[in-house]
Specification:
Helix content is 19%, strand content 44%. Strands 1, 2, 3, 4, 5 and 6 form a six-stranded mixed β-sheet that branches. The longest helix has 13 residues.
């Protein structure tokens, strides 16, 4: 289930939970207040790693003579990790299913709806040895997403004033100027 103001990591979490048919409490965003359940079933954490901005744009628009707005846009390449844990062998047996979820029809539909694209090929790394004697199966899937962020805001437009310019070239001359409306 998506929160009120979802971000890219929320969409990725939703795709994983939906495609692997897991309850919401079994798929969490990394660094939230949660504990790995003490059972043998699959548990997943989704972690933000870093992002690269590859496009940024700001445009101004007018609506008649009343409002002036700024439209800002940002394109990013974001890197995430999907971390599968289990005390039983469910993480071992379902790790490929998590990668398949990235290229699912549901993932593509969500991407079209909310403005992101998930890379369908992702490496799987076995991190089980990090757990030592705990015998916890642990796999990390590196995911790349292309995301588009947009923001529209009304800004003040000071185009309703006029001014005067005084030029000195031997004699004082005062000229009235009129504002130029943005297009």
């Amino acid at each position: 289930m998506l929160p009120t103001n979802p971000t890219a990591i929320d969409y990725l979490r939703d795709v994983i939970a939906s495609e692997l048919a897991l309850a919401d409490d079994r798929v969490n965003i990394y660094n939230q207040d949660f504990k790995i359940p003490n059972d043998k079933f699959l548990f997943i954490g989704v972690e933000y790693k870093y992002s690269k901005v590859f496009g940024s744009k700001s445009e101004a628009y007018t609506f008649g003579t009343v409002a002036f707005s700024e439209h800002q846009g940002l394109n990013t390449q974001e890197h995430y990790a999907i971390i599968l844990f289990s005390r039983g062998d469910e993480a071992l047996s379902r790790k490929e299913e998590a990668v398949m979820a990235l290229g699912s029809i549901y993932a593509r539909q969500q991407g079209d709806r909310y403005g992101f694209k998930i890379a369908r090929i992702a490496p799987i790394q076995d991190l089980s040895a990090l757990e030592g004697a705990a015998i916890l199966y642990r796999y990390e899937i590196s995911v790349v997403m292309l995301c588009r962020y947009e923001k529209v805001k009304t800004v003040d437009w000071y185009g309703t004033f006029s001014g005067q310019v005084t030029v000195e070239n031997g004699e004082d001359t005062t000229t009235d100027i009129e504002p130029v409306q943005p297009t």
